[in-house]
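Why does residue order matter? Because the sequence determines the fold. Keep that principle in mind as you read this record.
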Amino acid sequence: MKAGTSVLTVKIEINPRVHIGLISMHAGAPRKNGGLGFAVEGPTASIKTTSAPDLGVFDRRPKPMREREIERLRDQLEQIKQQLDLPSAATFEIAGGFLTHCGMGSGTAIKLACIEGLLEINHRTTGRKELIRLSGRGGTSGVGISTYFDGGFAFDLGVVGGKSDHFVPSSIGAADTLPLQLHRQSLPDWPLGLCLPRKCEPKTQEEEIEFFRRATPLPSVKSYEAAYVAVFQVLASLMEQDYRSFCQAISAIQESEWKRLERAEYAPHVDHTDKALRELGVDCVGMSSLGPLLYFFASSETLERVRAHSEQLDADIFLTVPNNSGRRMTSI
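Structure:
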């Protein structure tokens, strides 16, 4: 960096997303993947990007990424800097309670925030599609990229290419085209909680890839069943803002084949925790993405009761609300 150059800092606050489920996971279909989910307020993380002579990534969270994951992110950001011929490098400091590898969508949100921060300190403007392309995300489901920018509920129809029986997680599922978004809306202000069972060990990227390899493709009828629940139950109940029907839909999606296989990865702990939450009076329980994070909707009084029982549940409990605005950026 040249002498006299001002140091610029940009801070981006990101939110978790709940991924309700993937849909088209069978071979030979005109489109594959597709998904639905929504953003929540917390726990959040902040990514502080500061101009610097050399590029560095520092994860200050209590539970940081693994060192090889940090190195991979650093290498990707360095490649973007060189590809776009950006004059300034940067340091990226990640802080907050937003957890990694548990179903909150941190990988997509952190990477997009780092890229946005890098472009911002270099006074480089670009559109969403280019940011997403640079991130390499969105090939499996468009929920994470949609909620990063806008929050709310998102439903997409995946990408063309279903005739291939090769399915991979979002961490490596880059696509030439973005998933086709069917619907987006603000989520009603329904209180909810997040539950992370302590006995469930989160999956590594390699374990996620292996799960997709052995679990796919599904029989086509299983995708049809998931699509019916996703459209006629989850989507319809949200469009009508029918809380009771929405809770019934979340319960129904847990019985779909893909979600059943995901939940089975954490047997019996997830099912035991699910049962305990229901006994405490919650209205529905679902598992986000490949888990092990559970999400549940209930009255405010019931949510507080769940939080008070966190030790009996042997789980970390976060009470939150929907986020309908997406990430927040400020210059420091």
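The chain has eleven helices and 14 strands.
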